[in-house]
Amino acid sequence: MDGTKQQCLTSQNNGEDLNTKQFATEARSDGTVVASVYGTTPNGNDQSTYMTAADGTILLSHSTFTGPDNAAKNIDYDPTNTQPYQTQTTTTDALNRTDKVDTLYDDNHRVVRDYDENGSSTVAYTETTTDALNRTDFVTTVNDNGTSSNTDYDQANTSNWGAITTNFDAGAHAVSQNGSYDNGTGWINQWDAGNTQNWSFISSNTNASGQVTGQTGAYDNGSGWINQWDAGNTQSWSFISSSTNGGGQVTGQTGTYDNGTGWINQWDVGNTQNWSFISSNTNASGQVTGQTGTYDNATGWINQWDPTNTQNWSFISSDTNSAGQVTAQTGTYDNNTGWVNQWDPANTQNWSFISTTRDAAGSTPIRWAVTTTVLAGPITGMLAISTRTGRRIPTRSMRKV
Predict the structure, then answer these.
(1) Is 216 helix (H, G, I), strand (E, B) or coil?
(2) How many other CB atoms are found less than 10 A from the CB of residue 157?
(3) Engineered SS bond to 83: which of 78, 206, 288, 344, CB 3.0-4.6 Å?
């Protein structure tokens, strides 16, 4: 029996020769016998505890190996299957500080916790979990300041992602996370756990090259934003940024086209304004060049600006009815003179069009009302009337059709 124990103990020390110094046994009432073996090897001392079952089966319960530098390795076995693990190996340094704990569980997955026992880094310990096929499943790092990180691997390839790393503050609150999908794309999440920012959450999407392609964020007041980047240059635009209210409704949007021009859109989802939608166009310098808007009653406006001075006018503003027909227009020329036009698309007036010109001082010296004369069928002529003098002003005859 002694020889058998010595053979078992030798196998725990990489086959080194064992010289048994002491051997002690304890017989228990259940028929088992606990034996302790003390011995030496060329590289240190060894102490092992065995349990002999009633049927004579020899089971290793505990083994301790101490090296010449006093570093030790303690192995606990579970011969009676009362623990969730098969073995738990604890390694200590010469000052008896825990260096590593290696636990092999009954289902053959393994957890290895590696401590920074001498304080040589800012990491307190790193814990690595592998599955029964020895594939890395989890890696947890705990820092001296209490912060930590955890990486979860899809080692069995059962999900559409490859790895997810989550970082935690000292209070175990998640503060950031990055993940990678199987196709190489990924995401980056951020939480303001300490409430030090004006936002509570940001989530960004990345392409296979690591470029950010989309981002959503939530402010502390519940409003938020949605950003999009055309990193692959597959669209006519390079960037779009939308603002949302607490209900997730889009209230504003800015965008930039590839040529540098852009747009600014606004929606009145809370119905606090007399308009429902405004859309403005900008040039490459960010100057507004055009704008369309819709009032709550479905009428609207169309504005145009000439910021680069390529036209003989500087500003034009047109009003539209609910059918989108232009009903009025004001314009300003570069010399500050201008015009005011009116149309009667609904045919509610006895005129169809009025055009008024004004001088640089804003006076309106001439106003024209244009009507058409219809005689039993085709248009025969057109009459212009001066609204200042009431005189009829002849116009050229129109060709009969």
Answers:
(1) strand
(2) 10
(3) 78
Residue 48, classified by CB atoms within 10 Å of its CB into exposed (0-12), middle (13-18) or buried (19+), is buried
Pairing of strands 224-229, 212-219: antiparallel
Which residue's structure tokens are 């006895």?
Answer: 350
Question: Which is nearest to 250 in space by CA: 217, 230, 223?
Answer: 223
CA-CA-CA-CA torsion for 99, 104, 105, 108, nearest 10 degrees? 150
The residue type of 148 is S
Q: Which residues 6+ apart lie within 8 Å of 380 measured at CB?
A: 373, 374, 397, 398, 400
Reading the chain (401 residues) residue by residue, the pLDDT tens digits are 333 333 333 334 444 444 555 556 667 777 766 666 656 666 666 666 666 666 766 666 778 888 878 888 998 988 878 899 999 999 999 999 999 999 999 999 999 999 999 999 999 999 999 999 999 999 999 999 999 999 999 999 999 999 999 999 999 999 999 999 999 999 999 999 999 999 999 999 999 999 999 999 999 999 999 999 999 999 999 999 999 999 999 999 999 999 999 999 999 999 999 999 999 999 999 999 999 999 999 999 999 999 999 999 999 999 999 999 999 999 999 999 999 999 999 999 999 999 999 998 877 655 555 544 433 444 333 334 344 444 433 433 322 22
Residue type at position 172: A
In DSSP notation, 220-263 reads TTS-EEEEEE-TT--SSEEEEEEEE-TTS-EEEEEEEETTS-EE
Alpha-carbon distance of 369 to 350, in angstroms, equals 10
pTM for the whole structure: 0.77
Q: What are phi and psi of 99, to 5 degrees?
A: -100, -45
191 in Cβ contact with 198 (< 8 Å): no
4 backbone dihedrals φ, ψ, rounded to 5°: -65, -45
